[in-house]
């Protein structure tokens, strides 16, 4: 006999292989989604392709990997006990510590029993007749769910570069986003690193300490600010904790990027040269992402932006002794901040080491990889090991790997062929009851991800509870609401300098990917208010259908 589930109202919830909610991914988003839904009593199954929880922090184990948002802020806020009790050891926690935290959360909130590891979701098909999703997993099983939540992460689909000859290379090849779990020792080896984004910039100084020779192949130089990482003292942690109510409130409601910091009240050109320089200097010394918050117009006014970019270029010239190398390391083809700004420890100084060389592959392109070398137009660079720090198919890549079919058999990949289309980054029209956490069209990667994750999970939970309370069966974005939102996301992006860079925000790093600015740049606080307003107006812009009588539970 079937029973009406207290949350979903579904009859199928009681039978094996039938869940109220299937969550794809057990990173920070998937784990919190499970925790929140558990609180409502629903049946939830989480599938995770990795061998453990932690998402991006499970995979990205490259040397030097650490978060670029301070750990006291890059942490869950939903549990007061958790945030008071967990002791972050450093200002920016290293990857192993963040992974330990993820594991602690899984254990502390008893999440593991509903998480199936080493299992990919390959397919999700919406059945119009039953209004359920049929979900196929990599272990060959099929389950049904009323709701599917994609907690697949924005930077989880590591991108192997299309470089001729790569499979013929005889040494070891590592991708930063799929680093082995066993220790990698480069001692005495000649190593080549391809890519100088955040992952390359974090790993280069550490690899340089081990390798006999390190050659860095750079296509685009990046702006990077010193992390000024340090151990946290007990007093610093206590001071933070005492201020948590205000820090968390500010991050959620006021900050554009979900990070607690001072809000600038003037533009860069409102100050004279000396004052401006001293302000940049103070932030440079403080270190970290908030360098871009010195002034309120660095993201929108090119002349203002140039002042910050010049400051960083001057710093590179000061740090790097060889003037030619310094020049090659100075970014000149995009405004500062229009590509994700990098945070480093001794990156530029590493090029002063005698065992480190920089190759500019923009002017001297890689032609192929041979058995033992990177062959450029100007000649061969012999290497024993290769590190590919070449990034991700960001924001849509992991979703695209799942065969998702909504109404009328339309696939999500067909629908998104010219760029992702969502309403609020949360749902896509034609795909009922399919939610995306930090999807394209939401602040996501432009924010402290955990702040955005918690907001989306809370909103989705509220939505599911609302549907149950109102006897509703399906919910989906209305096409006109979605079109307006997509237009709004583009419009806001166009008021900024972001579209001026060939960044992964634009899909520009993937050949053939439509070039659309994917995240919503209106700010975390503004976005939260929009989502709350939509909910308070009975989920304006979403179509909801009532459960048909046949869907009501009958004794069987
Ligand atoms: P990324 O920023 O996309 O950088 C990839 C690098 O590889 C770029 O320098 C790119 O050059 C180069 N590249 C790509 N394909 C290439 C090819 N075929 N030949 C030569 N060079 C190639 O990737 P990422 O460094 O992994 O970082 C991605 C994002 O992950 C970051 O922006 C950040 O949001 C996040 N992340 C965060 C942290 C942290 O919290 N500290 C650490 C790592 C990553 P072009 O620029 O010319 O395309």
From TrEMBL:
A family per Pfam: Pyr_redox_2
Reported cofactor(s): FAD
Coiled coil (residue ranges): none
Residue ranges constituting the FAD/NAD(P)-binding domain according to the UniProt record: 19-227
Highest rank taxon of the organism: Bacteria
GO terms assigned for molecular function: monooxygenase activity
UniProt xrefs under InterPro entries: FAD-binding_Monooxygenases, FAD/NAD-bd_sf, FAD/NAD-binding_dom
Entry-linked SUPFAM superfamilies: FAD/NAD(P)-binding domain
Keywords: FAD, Flavoprotein, Monooxygenase, NADP, Oxidoreductase
Keyword check for NADP: yes
Transmembrane segments: none
Matches recorded under PANTHER family: L-ORNITHINE N(5)-MONOOXYGENASE-RELATED (PTHR43098)
Similarity-based family: Belongs to the FAD-binding monooxygenase family.
Protein name: Cyclohexanone monooxygenase
Biological classification of the source: Bacteria, Pseudomonadati, Pseudomonadota, Alphaproteobacteria, Hyphomicrobiales
